[in-house]
Amino acid sequence: MWGLLSIQKLLLLAVIIGGVWMAFRIMDRRQKSNDDDASPKKSRKQQAKPLDMVSCSSCGAWVSMPCERPDCPIE
């Protein structure tokens, strides 16, 4: 049965090797995505500290630092 190599046997072997290779690629991608989710790294947005905002009585906008108006009461 397996004595001589034929085209069909070589194609079957190639399909099996390709299937195993694809299975390992899929498992590797899943492992990498799970590692990324479990890592303590935070995105840039999550690392940013919140700002204390106050309402400017002269312009009515919420600002964290003085606005560009000369009569801004926030210092």
Description:
By secondary structure, this protein is mainly alpha-helical. 48% of the residues lie in helices and 5% in strands. The protein contains 2 helices and 2 strands; from the N terminus they run H-H-E-E. The chain has helices at residues 7-38, 44-47, and strands at 54-55, 62-63. Strands 1-2 form a two-stranded antiparallel ribbon.
**Helix and strand composition category:** mainly alpha
List low-confidence stretches: none
What spatial form do the alpha-carbon principal axes imply? rod-shaped
Distance between the termini: 90 Å
Q: What is the makeup of the main sheet?
A: 2 strands, antiparallel
Number of helices: 2
Gist?
By secondary structure, the protein is mainly α. A hairpin with a 6-residue loop joins strand 1 (54-55) and strand 2 (62-63).
